[in-house]
Amino acid sequence: GGAAYQRPWHTLGSVDTEIFGESENPSSSRRQVINEYAELCDKQIDSQCELFGCERKHVLRKMVKPLLGLFYKEPGAQKWRTQITSSLDKDKPSCVSEVVEKGMACVPDQILDAGPG
User: Fold this and answer.
1) Residue of 53, 41, 51, 52 lying closest to 94 (CA atoms)
2) 12 backbone dihedrals φ, ψ, rounded to 5°
3) Interior CA angle at 96 toward 101 and 11, to 5°?
4) CA-to-CA distance for 67 and 42, rounded, in angstroms?
5) 24, 30, 21: which is closest to 75 by C-alpha?
6) Could you tell me which residues come within 8 angstroms of residue 39 by beta carbon, excluding any fewer than 6 positions away?
7) Residues 6+ away with beta carbon under 8 Å from 91
8) How many alpha carbons fall within 13 Å on the CB side of residue 110?
């Protein structure tokens, strides 16, 4: 349980092929996963705010939290977490895409674009 939370990419990045028998891994890189996740979240923000009766900033924080450990013990990880937290606290973002775009600028491209495993 803890490994999947602390090191999700290394623990779960190949689950589709290794456990579920898919012929190809649908996740080619963390950049792809982050962008697709952000797009999905952005489509759901308003309905989640309405469903839970929360302010947008609280829903954004809950949506972004699972991404914080995505670069655990890798170059840029601390800057990633710091930028995400700072963006949520100070920038008043309107969507998840805004937050993660700023965070990804803190992580080296070779880490963002590396495949799972």
Assistant:
1) 41
2) -115, 0
3) 80
4) 15
5) 30
6) 97
7) 98, 99, 102
8) 2
81-101 confidence digits (pLDDT tens): 999 999 999 988 999 999 999
Alpha carbons 65 and 42: distance in angstroms, whole number: 14
Q: State the virtual CA torsion across 63, 65, 70, 72 in degrees, nearest 10.
A: 180
Contact 57, 87 (CB under 8 A): no
pLDDT (average), residues 92-112: 95
**Cβ(103)–Cβ(87) below 8 Å:** yes
pTM for this model (two decimals): 0.82
Are 88 and 103 spatial neighbours (Cβ–Cβ below 8 Å)?
no
Residue ranges in the chain assigned as alpha helix (H): 2-6, 8-12, 15-18, 30-52, 56-64, 77-86, 96-104, 109-112
Mean pLDDT of the 44-66 span: 93
